[in-house]
Amino acid sequence: MGRNMIRNRFELEGSVTDETHLNGTIQVLTSHESVRGFTPEEVPPAALEAILTSARSAPTSSNLQAYSIIVVRDADRKSRISALSGHQGFIQEAPVMLVFCADIHRLKYVTQRQGYDFKADTLEMFLLSSVDAALAMQNALVAAEALGYGAVPVGSVRNHPEELALELGLPEGMFAVVGLAVGREREGVRRGVKPRLPRSVTVHEERYSAAALDKGLNAYDEQMISRRSYDGRRVSIAGEPEKEGSDYGWCEHTARRCTRPETIAASSSLRENLREVLMRRGFSLC
Which residues form the Nitroreductase domain (predicted)? Predict the structure, then answer.
């Protein structure tokens, strides 16, 4: 069976689960593949409402609901967001772009409205609001895929956070954490469910253990190399010769990406000053 015919991660990894536990929800979750090409077909209002209601049903710490979702459908605005997010064409193609924001602006307003001083300017509040936004995004992603749409999270909305905040009218106390492009997938954009690190590397019983780490990393490297996952995507390091041969896998690619900020955010000027930006946006990292 070709990789494009693999339905879910259970098939890809050859793991076994009984049919009782392979229900529709598990099928959607284990069949996830990021889609980066869309048709012009609109997402109907009822479908979008189902996606947004699913997002709003995500867990939230202490019921603070410290997030907001910006729904973007305007073509010109999507074009500008694309330019601020690495010029990724699929953002313009997708009929809907959802931007999930950490939002303590509303919490500050409510605190002051009730006659109190807001004193929750802490690192915990930033983490809490960011996790709330991420959980809402994941719910939206699963809902979209369950309805037959393609979707892809967009971390590059953090490339130019202050410019994006102006574009979206975000007040102080809001920060765009992640986007989600949603739409009907364009034919031929799927490449099959992507392998993940082995269970033995990322799942631990009772206590963390690195006993299986190297074995798992080596196995994953072999898998990604055999799929030619990094052909044309090799990360160069200044002053070092390009690494040739068949041993360029996930470990080498990932290690090279972690050697400097620009290999994560695509440009040396992006995200490296994120701490200062967040503080200007009204978040405390203390």
Answer: 31-83, 86-183
